[in-house]
Amino acid sequence: MNEFEKALAGILGEKNLAGIQKVKTFIAGAGGLGSNCALYLARSGFKKFRIVDFDVVEYGNLNRQFYFAAQVGYRKVEALKENLLLVNAGLEIEALPEKIHRENVTEFFSGCDVVVEALDDARSKKILVEAYLESQDSDKLLVAASGLAGWGKSDGIKVHRIKDNFYIVGDMTSEAGPGCPPLAPGVNVAAAKQADVVLSYFLKQPLI
User: Fold this and answer.
1) Which of 23, 56, 148, 162 shows the smallest number of beta carbons within 10 Å?
2) Tens of each residue's pLDDT in the chain, 208 residues
3) Residue 136, in any domain of the structure
4) Residue 174 counted as domain residue
5) The pTM is what?
6) Residue 207 domain flag
């Protein structure tokens, strides 16, 4: 247990931290949602991650994603791994620079205890959720997101329980587009709520 983990154990309790550290989290997408959710989970004691994203860091990402100007041009998964290890050098991170599609999605979440859907486009979201619900891992926790663009509406970003191990975070309506861009406040609220669902689930606390 490193110094960060010792300090966190003093907050969460050693037993709670030990339980959290056994959880393996699959994060699909390392953009605004995925990069920030991973940060909040790492700060909360989660230690094992599998992160999948094919994209690279651009200047247009820096308004809401957990990256820095010096990382522009880096693969997102490698940059995110680098940043997360600055929080806790003891993390175990599989950083996979791959594009998620119907043929490979099941292997990506296989063996994980929780799936965080943090993808940009509706088609990819649908592929992941459908594959998960049809898989042998459908008893594991799934936390998806829908509706978090724009500003001034963060109170509308809620946790929606679909079933005991399937939650969707968002306002369910605010799709990103012209006049309603994804910005740091709304994106971070949604990412924090996704992380809070995961933390609450494994600490066995009531969510809603």
Assistant:
1) 162
2) 999 999 999 999 999 999 999 999 999 999 999 999 999 999 999 999 999 999 999 999 999 999 999 999 999 999 999 999 999 999 999 999 999 999 999 999 999 999 999 998 888 999 999 999 898 878 999 999 987 777 877 888 999 999 999 999 988 777 776 776 878 889 999 999 999 999 999 998 655 5
3) yes
4) yes
5) 0.94
6) no
